[in-house]
Write a structure and sequence with these properties.
The structure is a single chain. With 120 residues, the chain is mostly helical. 78% of the residues lie in helices and 0% in strands.
Length: 120
């Protein structure tokens, strides 16, 4: 009997995965004000989560570049405050990525638990 439940649970999970809408990056950027910019950041992402992840990674990269560029300015123009703000922004973006990933994992685990209670 447990094997039968395991098989049916696998089928339910496969059906759920197949039912998730698979858009293209063009679809994800359809409502954007700056479609070209959206597409350049989103790239080939197929899901909103992947697009958000790509966007945050791009923000981290661009913020690091801006920090390096600003560090080349004369010290009177580039204070410790600027360095702190850039580093805080990078840290906050990296924290956001980890939080989003953990939230997604928790949601998937909760869904799996819920499905297993329905099957049993």
């Amino acid at each position: 009997m447990p094997i039968e439940h395991s098989t049916s649970l696998s089928l339910v999970v496969l059906v759920m995965i197949a039912a998730i809408p698979q858009g293209s990056s063009a679809d994800l950027c359809a409502g954007a004000d700056y479609k070209a910019l959206c597409r350049s950041v989103v790239g080939r992402a197929k899901t909103p989560y992947a697009a958000a992840e790509a966007t945050v990674k791009r923000l981290i990269s661009e913020t690091k570049k801006a920090n390096l560029s600003a560090a080349r300015l004369p010290k009177k123009d580039y204070s410790q405050t600027c360095a702190t703000l850039y580093n805080n922004a990078i840290s906050d973006l990296e924290t956001s990525l980890k939080a989003a990933e953990n939230t997604l994992i928790q949601q998937l685990a909760s869904t799996g638990l819920y499905i297993s209670t329905l099957v049993n």
